Amino acid sequence: MDRFVYLDNSATTKVSERVFEAMVPYLTEHYGNPSSIYGIGREAHAAIDEAREKVAKAINAKSREIYFTGCGTESDNWAIKGAARHLAKKGKKHIITSVFEHHAVLHTCQSLEKEGFEVTYLTVDSEGYVSPSDVENAIREDTALVTIMYANNEIGTIQPIAEIGKICRDKKVLFHTDAVQAIGNVRIDVQAENIDMLSLSGHKIHAPKGVGALYVRQGVVIDNFMDGGAQENNKRGGTENLASIVGLGAAMEEAHNGLEEKAAKLTILRDKLIDNLLKIPHTRLNGGRENRLCTNVNISFEGIEGEGLLLLLDLNGIAGSSGSACTSGSLDPSHVLLAIGLEHGIAHGSLRLSLGRYNTEEDVDYALQVIPQVVERLRAMSPVWQEMKEQGLV
Amino acid sequence: MDRFVYLDNSATTKVSERVFEAMVPYLTEHYGNPSSIYGIGREAHAAIDEAREKVAKAINAKSREIYFTGCGTESDNWAIKGAARHLAKKGKKHIITSVFEHHAVLHTCQSLEKEGFEVTYLTVDSEGYVSPSDVENAIREDTALVTIMYANNEIGTIQPIAEIGKICRDKKVLFHTDAVQAIGNVRIDVQAENIDMLSLSGHKIHAPKGVGALYVRQGVVIDNFMDGGAQENNKRGGTENLASIVGLGAAMEEAHNGLEEKAAKLTILRDKLIDNLLKIPHTRLNGGRENRLCTNVNISFEGIEGEGLLLLLDLNGIAGSSGSACTSGSLDPSHVLLAIGLEHGIAHGSLRLSLGRYNTEEDVDYALQVIPQVVERLRAMSPVWQEMKEQGLV
Amino acid sequence: MMYSAKVMEHFASPHNVGEMPDANGVGEVGNQKCGDIMKMYIKVENNVIVDVKFLTFGCGAAIATSSMATDLIKGQPLSEALKLTNKAVVEALDGLPAVKLHCSVLAEQAIKAAIADYYRRQGIDPTPIVGEIEDCEACHCH
Ligand SMILES: Cc1ncc(COP(=O)(O)O)c(C=O)c1O
Ligand SMILES: Cc1ncc(COP(=O)(O)O)c(C=O)c1O
Ligand code: FES
Ligand code: FES
């Protein structure tokens, strides 16, 4: 099996050639510490400034509103813990989020609960959207922060961020959004959408793993998360992840040049995948079709279990992911699929395919050739499917 | 000016060729997410496991005791905040550290003070050593943690870690050491030295900036710092910094093979620098000579100011620092030099030269040719020096 | 998480898959909530398992353990088949990741359940012979 079709771009992406080339000098000759005052130190500093400009520009922020971090998870931890702990001093100890956030947000909120914060977890509808009026109704006198993801990582639904931003701004409550999945796929404007803080991560947009950024609107004050040296304007200690930051800058620039064309192309591929996979009987699309990332396909196949599906796809050279618990070794299937109302059984049999810049129509055609066969094979050995058959359901 | 002599290896180091080559595949073709179950995901996972083995082996730890982080600063934050917050639940809210720790430790302790912890900052003697009996005397019923750096980043003094480790173990108090500067220069054995937690950082040992590790002895429980996914055995969320972790593994292996030979070679270079720089009149060595990193030279020149010195050295192609990289460019003189009793004036006129694997005797000879001239030039234009002259002191 | 070559072999080409219309013992364990359901069919003649088939809804490890377990009991007397432990199945597969050990527990239980069903059909109380078969609620595989 020589063919390799990567359809897991929401898990991580390949570093682009341009990004790699931008990084190499900083992994070789230009190794100065950005805090040092001699030549290679100043150069390193300038390279970081340039990357900061690029990140800022892509989301319509100012350069000094961008802070580099070690990953998307750190950005989420910092934004949420930093805001919560800061505002707790003013008696604000309530946080609003949704039940289907990424674990970087959910587990952060849970750890804040142990610190004495109260968290409201908004439910989402069966299509996978948070309702702005739910946000509005949940806001209290003591609400410190609303944190709602820009787009869901499993089912790709794009949330009504501008509306939520407007509500929060009107009610004078801080608004953070985890845009890790949206960045590069949706054009984001932090000013127009009234976003106070935004998390992003390099490895979802063809920069390396292990670098992220947090946008914090000028005037918003949050506690530091990483105490240390004077880097990042005294707000985030630690010698800067130089090469990866340069890579992130290059990746943001690349992602935002021609974003619309890329999205249009991917939407066509995505729809071809969805339409054809739905032809397999007893199959459902998870997440609404309207406001959906151009990259995301999430389908449940009744009667089969996701890990087996992934392994068989792997044997056929296709990389995808699943909301099955078995993949993660836990008993519970994806909290996202349960949140939109799926039963355990069917949640276990879900497949996420996520497209990226380098996918072609041939990739999609190949996947559409392999997947129905694989599903059929697994169903043939599934007691659940046999039972459905006996009951005349299929 | 073509010559370039890098004598700031305590600020950061050049990525070694072997490390770079080990990283490249993970920045190009092997881009899988280590949590994914298909081929390139499993490969990535295996690469991280291998790096973990290498890091563990270098300090005589077990592989499962090593957690990868985003930098040395994160390791320090996690160890100290994680232990403090965990033990606070058992009523232990006292921390012992020293006045001359790195800011990653000091600022972390200060932020814990705001959370209600009490911190004892031990003074150090004029040679730059913490006294084990001071540690012993400071331990109380409610002491959660002792954190003392392995070797000081500015003056290179190696602390009596094994003795402090023994005291802490006997008193059943957790012991953390920031070994960011010691790693690769001193052979460390976490078991023999009774170290419970140890921080290290890649970019001081020829791995890239923006990756670190924390050793946590098996059985020691601390709170998580970075909440998120199930990575790092559920203890540190965030997609792993794949390429840099692989680089860190390779760098640890490289640093620990032949450590003694490298140290012997560097000690000779270091002593040549120290002996010859001390021939310049009104000059002092900061930090004791006995237990001193083989890489560290820290000299104060009366009557001059460090930044001018650095800039002139830079013009001559020599990279050095005047205190830690993080503090250069700030107005306050180094807290480390003040801690060993230097006056503000002389603290300002200090120069740190730090050797690394790639330095040669020619580098040292060149530095010894340039520095005396530069010092003389600055003294000639210094009113302080002129006054000393008028008073017949020089 | 990584599967051994043996696990992948049994997963990719499982042995003894399918239904068995003329089985004289059928056992089913697990539930969809646990993410794993195994159905085991046996044909017993003269106290020997002459044929065995399985259906499994579950992960790669579940499918591989089903396949291996059926191989191990095929042609064996019932008394031997009852001695099969999940540990033996795991060993035969060159090990399983720790998080997957529960899937092998299920294979052992599915066999017991099928044998119990066989005895029941013969009018014999299986409990003294087979013992209790734990269901998922009681499972301590996690
Ligand atoms: C002693 C010491 N601790 C911690 C750090 C912080 O490490 P990093 O820059 O990787 O965050 C440094 C270096 O900057 C250091 O010298
Ligand atoms: C929505 C979302 N938030 C946060 C993260 C975490 O980012 P990182 O892996 O860089 O920590 C991810 C991806 O893993 C994600 O999809
Ligand atoms: S069936 Fe879910 S882990 Fe094996
Ligand atoms: S086998 Fe179902 S929970 Fe263990």
Automatic annotation (TrEMBL), chains A, B:
Which residues are noted in the entry as [2Fe-2S] cluster-binding?
A: C326
Domain Aminotransferase class V intervals: 5-366
Give the UniProt keywords, A-Z.
Answer: 2Fe-2S, Cytoplasm, Iron, Iron-sulfur, Metal-binding, Pyridoxal phosphate, Transferase
**Protein name in UniProt:** Cysteine desulfurase IscS
Q: Which reaction does it catalyse?
A: (sulfur carrier)-H + L-cysteine = (sulfur carrier)-SH + L-alanine
Q: Which residues form the active site?
A: C326 (cysteine persulfide intermediate)
The primary location reported for this protein is cytoplasm
UniProt record similarity statement: Belongs to the class-V pyridoxal-phosphate-dependent aminotransferase family. NifS/IscS subfamily.
- PANTHER family assigned to the protein according to its UniProt record, in alphabetical order: CYSTEINE DESULFURASE, CYSTEINE DESULFURYLASE FAMILY MEMBER
Its Enzyme Commission number(s) read 2.8.1.7
Which organism does this record belong to? Fumia xinanensis
Q: Which residues bind pyridoxal 5'-phosphate?
A: G72, T73, N153, Q181, S201, G202, H203, T239
Automatic annotation (TrEMBL), chain C:
Q: Which SUPFAM superfamilies match?
A: SufE/NifU
Residue ranges of the NIF system FeS cluster assembly NifU N-terminal domain? 2-122
Q: Which InterPro entries match?
A: NIF_FeS_clus_asmbl_NifU-like, NIF_FeS_clus_asmbl_NifU_N
Q: Which domain of life is it from?
A: Bacteria
Q: Which GO terms describe its biological process?
A: iron-sulfur cluster assembly
One GO molecular-function annotation for this sequence? iron-sulfur cluster binding
Record's protein name: Fe-S cluster assembly scaffold protein NifU
